[in-house]
Structure formats: structure tokens, C-alpha cells
Amino acid sequence: MVEEIAAIMANCGRCIVLTGAGISAESGVPTFRGKDGLWGKFRAEELATMDAFLSNPAIVWEWYNWRRELMAKVEPNPGHLAITEMESLFDDFTLVTQNVDNLHRVAGTRNILELHGNIHHNKCVECNRSHDPKAQIDPDEIPCCEHCGGKIRPDVVWYGEMLDSAIINAAFQQSERADIFFSVGTSAIVHPAASLPPIAKRSGATLVEVNVEETPISFLADFHVRGKSGEFLPRLVEELKKRRASE
Ligand code: BV8
Ligand code: ZN
To answer: Whose alpha carbon is nearest atom 15 of ligand 1?
Structure first.
């Protein structure tokens, strides 16, 4: 499979990679819906929603602080690093991530669309103005916005919230123009992100899925690679580099 996919990639100009929590699993970051998933201990509806924040801001901040501490201790894994190398092998490359863990940035990938925001950023719940990203938030004394007095919240997209329109529109546009589209480590359940692989496929892209299990888009994929992204992607990039070198 690696040789076949690398051969197709060698003839592609525009490559798009969509990632989900699975790409960070090998860094030690729990996924959302896997057996050891984050949500397992907590229910998404309880925490990653505006209602949860308005009714119990302290518990939402406790959860985000717990995740921030966890993410401060982890490193990008070979899957993240392979994507950074992949970017250098294409003239036109876009990484679209659902993850808020910032690991793709730490891994050096440049052209990133963060669909769901970034867990290290803060903003005002009322006026959306950004707030000092370095601020340590004490759940029992949540700071207020100096402009309007609103409570400070994590700058991520919660369920029921709109994504940043410029970001999601860029993701749609790139997916429609992709020659090859990778869906890596995502359960392909959360919308609108989950609509990107079908859009790419419908627009003529080769669709490659890398996941340790089946997902609702596996039937659509030209290649369904059953395996860990941290193991498969480095092998794929090595094969592509060989082909690029022999061109
Ligand atoms: C919106 C940020 C509305 C916060 C997150 C019914 C049908 C369709 C849609 C909906 C519906 N009901 C409600 C909706 C809308 C809803 C939605 O899609 N719900 C789903 C659950 C059905 N979507 C929204 O609310 C979005 N907003 O629609 O706006 C609107 C419209 C008009 C006007 C106003 C409003 C907002 C969605 C964003 C929510 N925020 N996160 C935070 O992180 O704290 S979503 C959350 O899920 C994360 O961002 C995460 O990235 C994302 C997706 O999960 P995955 O990344 O896929 O992670 P998961 O654990 O699920 O899967 C991991 C995968 O990796 C697995 O497949 C596993 O097998 C694999 N894996 C594991 N290890 C590895 C691996 N693969 C490879 N290698 C490994 N080593
Ligand atoms: Zn404000």
C-alpha cells in the first residue's frame, strides 16, 4: 500500500491532510471517543458547550486546565513530524486539524487551519476579544474581560458553536481542489469537519484514510490504511522522498 500511495502522491500538486485526536494518541493525549477517551470520564455535552460554561464555569475550567497541563507535558510524535516533512514535499499543502492541542505547530507544520481553535488561547465569553494566552486561570476566580467584564473562556469551538467562517471556508475550498486528501486519526463524526473527506472525494481527489479502526467514511476511501499514524506516515514519507529524489 505504501508504494501505491507514494506513487500517486508523486504525481500530485495539491495535498490536504485532515487530522483528529488519533494523530496525538501516540503522544499520550487521550482521544475523545476511544476506549480510554477523554469523554469517557466526562461527557462532551457536560463540558464542551456554552451551556456548561454558563451554568458551571469552574468545572469547565478545571477540565481545560487538566488538559492544558497534560498537553504541556507531551511532545509531537513521528506522525506529526511526518506531516511536517510531507508539507516540504509539496508546492501546495494544507493541514486541517480538529485538534486544539497545538502539537502540529510544535512539530513545525506551517500551513495549518485549526478548525476548533487552540486550547492555549483564551477569549471573552461576551465580546470574544482574545485574552492573555499565558494567563493561568483559577477556576474559583475566573478573570473578567477588561473591555466588557465578561468571563474569560478557552478559545476553542464548543458544540453548537459556529466555526470561524474564514477557516472553515478555506478548508472547504482546499478540499474541493485537493489532488490527494488524507483523513488521519479522526472518527469522522463531528461536523462540519467530517464533511471534508466526502467533499474532496466528490471533487476528484484520491482519498486515503489512516485509522486503527473503521469509520463512517472508510467505505469512501480509495485506500483505508488500518494502522497507527505514527507508524504509517513516516514510512509513506520515506517512500515519497525516494521517488522525489529519483525524479
Ligand atoms: C456546529 C473543541 C452548528 C473543544 C470540539 C447531528 C448530525 C450532524 C451534526 C450534528 C448533529 N448534532 C449536532 C451536530 C453538530 C455537532 C456535531 O457534529 N456533533 C456530532 C457529535 C454529531 N457539531 C458542532 O456542534 C459544531 N458546530 O455544527 O455549529 C451551528 C450551525 C449553524 C449556526 C450555529 C451553530 C462544532 C463542533 C466542534 C466541537 N468541538 N472540540 C475541545 O476540544 O475541548 S469537537 C472534538 O471532536 C475535538 O475537536 C475532536 O477533534 C473532534 C473530533 O473527534 P476526533 O478528533 O475524530 O477524535 P475521536 O476520539 O472521535 O476519534 C479518534 C480517532 O482516531 C478514532 O477513529 C480512533 O480509531 C483513531 N485513532 C486512535 N489512535 C490512533 C488512531 N488513528 C491512527 N493512529 C492512531 N495511533
Ligand atoms: Zn469582553
So the answer is: 191
